[in-house]
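Blinded run. Sample ID left blank on purpose so nobody reads anything into the name before looking at the predicted structure. Input follows.
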Amino acid sequence: MHSAQELVSQLDALASLPTVYHRIREELDSPEGSVTEVGRLVCADPALSARMLRVVNSALYGYGGQVETINRAVQILGLQQVHDLVLAMSISSVFAGIRPENMDMYRFWRGSVMCGLAARSIARGSGLPSADRMFVVGLLADIGHLAMYQLVPELAWQAQQAAVSGSEDVAAAERRIIGCDHAEVAATLADHWRLPASFATILGAQLNPRLGGESSFDAAIIHVAGRIVLADRDGEPSAAAAARIEAAVWQQLQMSPDSFGRVREDAELNLAAFVALFFPSLAAAHHHR
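Blinded prediction complete.
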């Protein structure tokens, strides 16, 4: 059996976040953190700069082509938003080299972007000040599956098949067959990468938001967003998918199951554009198939 720690330490040889991300993180954590220094760090990476300007001027932020320089982008967005954006872009580049055989990478990242968009939509509807941060947490929600398919592909496949046959859910099958579930692996990875502390808590509690402590509200958001991705993948009607979410989760979010379909539509609206924005090479390859 494998522990989440063991899987993540193996993954570390394959995937680590770029230096620029860690430098920006240091600026964010430092009392003297400066917008100018963060702008300089981003500018030092031309590919990152170009992508950041594309994202800031995209429908995700709605500045419609008005932001022409990185310094302006950093001033408008602020340090936390820039940190989160660089993290989102780093994730796509770090995992670009990881292509497990049994995994359709376009479908995987499409689901991850959809989870991020759905999480952001729910967070905005709840009036959360950090709604855009939930996009990044949603983008990371399924990263544990990617690690499992890379490191223990046969076992990950067996767990998936057990879930498809309907005898147990995928997380229970993973715990029985692998020794840990994808949420634990995602949380361990977030810890290992020294992401903001709440990320690991939210990712770890995404299957059972009650366990999220102070972050249980955010974990409930990711829980619902994850169910939207599954409904999309399986072609399940929104009403049926919403009915399988515990009443306590809806109560905590102060939402009704009827809102599932609306959030799903909202996430689908910009989905293709954002997959192309964050995962350009995958989107292009998919388009040419």
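Unblinding after everyone has recorded impressions. The chain has a mean pLDDT of 90.
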